[in-house]
């Protein structure tokens, strides 16, 4: 039996030695497409306490999480170990008790099956990364080790100082003082760690965007794009805000008469698109409804466009949410695809469904996507104005099996109208929508 165990570890030698994590040489790199897509943070190849940050010049900097936290590659932030997901630290019910290294040489993390717990070696011992246990001896910390009460990252100098208001902080750099900078909603400034990391209900700064996700029987819109102005802005009926702090990147997009006009660049032939950073830090959870009203100008038989995708151009992410539209002899076929995650088991399940509708060439088509754990929708002929409520042509998109509780996140935002030559009349997301009859035609 012992010979068999040794054989298993030899087979896994490229990743594990003695069935524990070994150093790798595969280091993340900064790419222009990834940075433009909002994917400027990447996990470290060995240590879950560290991550990389890419700037607009494609320079990569190693950063450390605050003491006692680990980097979560899907959330782009550091979280408590019990909530962490680490790319190179395998942790599930079959890996309970497996140990992984800390940047601090006498500390380590142990898999609990659903997360990690931080532990320390006893005095005079160090953590042996290859054996996965503490052994006698002295050691030297990795340069970015952060111990309690310190911010000793050599690449990082704290310029932030406490404000008289605990929910704010000031920044001092080169003799210039920027005062009254607000911490994110529900947090207070932690001078010891030089960050807003104290959870504080007494700090309701700004807008709590989580309120957009609260259950709502009226199905009010959490995000609506306004095509009456350029640059394009987003509003929230649910939060009562005429302008949200969401940012867009556009190529081949203009506005005219309350519509977004999409056109392929005649020189570069690059497809038009509107890239919304809304999804970079936002998880679409069940139940939600999403609606796009668009008109495709002079489509060619056999042509397909990607109406929606959480990817960038050129391809940066593996999409987990996508809507494609194909045209053939007056018939539009819409395919919905998503990868969803089960909240409890963390299992991922992909599902797709489609339907077709005949449409006059000058009419607008509304594509309604509905997700309540299952994936379904509706195709609605909105006439030449795009606003017609006298619907004579509508098709239900069949429901798939139950897929999960939320759309799996990746590192991209949401791209709208990729390759579309035409117009978009409406784009709207209704998070927490409890009654889909409010949005169906």
UniProtKB/TrEMBL annotation:
Q: Using the record's annotation, list all stretches that form the Chitin-binding type-2 domain.
A: 27-88
Which SUPFAM superfamilies does the protein's record reference? Invertebrate chitin-binding proteins
Kindly indicate whether the keyword Ubl conjugation belongs to this entry.
no
Which residues are the signal sequence here?
1-19
Matching Gene3D superfamilies: Chitin binding domain
| Claim: Signal is one of the keywords in the record | yes
Q: Which GO molecular function annotations are given, in alphabetical order?
A: chitin binding
Q: Which UniProt keywords apply?
A: Signal
SMART domains found in the cross-reference section? ChtBD2
InterPro entries, alphabetized = Chitin-bd_dom, Chitin-bd_dom_sf
One GO CC term on file = extracellular region
The name this protein carries in UniProt is Prestalk protein
Can you name the source organism? Biomphalaria pfeifferi
- Name the lineage: Eukaryota, Metazoa, Spiralia, Lophotrochozoa, Mollusca
